[in-house]
């Protein structure tokens, strides 16, 4: 049971979510904006401003990552678990919205969102599990 607690640690999954969104969201959007614009919009549909939008999205994601790192480093206990649950719900909303609205408008593919959605749900599950534990 002790090993399972390590695997289901809210802090561990919070950091996994930070790294995944940092690398595959913020960093990739910032460094590969032109490629992402072409991939998302299609080579024939890319306009001059699309690369700028993709890069700005990456920069905005960095702001979110910095906030999440601050939470992970500065907050602990029940409040951390509550913030992890709020974070997972917020990310789940955004990832679902991009997946569904984007797909409906020819932007990207739903399959690209499976990993982020799984991470969002796992983080939520670990946070709920932790919040249900009796306080020490």
Structural write-up:
80% of the residues lie in helices and 0% in strands. The chain is elongated and about 55 Å long. It has helices at 2-7, 10-31, 33-41, 50-74, 77-104, 114-132. The protein is an all-alpha fold and 136 residues long. α3 (33-41) crosses α4 (50-74).
Write the layout of secondary structure elements.
Layout: H1 2-7, H2 10-31, H3 33-41, H4 50-74, H5 77-104, H6 114-132
Helix pairs in contact: 2-4, 2-6, 3-4, 5-6
| Percent in strands | under 5%
Number of beta strands = 0
Distance separating the two termini: 17 Å
Multimer state: single chain
> Count of helices?
6
Q: Estimate the helix proportion, in percent.
A: over 70%
Give the low-confidence spans.
Answer: none
Radius of gyration: 17 Å
- Mean of all residue-level pLDDT scores: 91
Q: Give the helix/strand class.
A: mainly alpha
Outline type: elongated
Q: Which sheet architecture does the biggest sheet show? A: none
Would you list the SSEs in sequence order as H and E? HHHHHH
């Amino acid at each position: 049971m002790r090993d399972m607690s390590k695997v289901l640690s809210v802090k561990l999954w919070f950091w996994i979510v930070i790294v995944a969104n940092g690398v595959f969201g913020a960093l990739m959007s910032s460094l590969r904006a032109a490629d992402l614009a072409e991939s998302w919009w299609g080579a024939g549909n890319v306009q001059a401003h699309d690369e700028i939008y993709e890069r700005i999205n990456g920069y905005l994601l960095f702001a979110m990552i910095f906030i999440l790192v601050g939470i992970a480093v500065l907050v602990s206990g029940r409040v951390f678990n509550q913030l992890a649950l709020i974070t997972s719900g917020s990310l789940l909303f955004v990832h679902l919205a991009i997946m569904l609205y984007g797909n409906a408008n020819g932007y990207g593919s739903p399959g690209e969102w499976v990993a982020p959605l799984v991470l969002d749900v796992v983080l939520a599950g670990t946070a709920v599990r932790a919040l249900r534990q009796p306080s020490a």
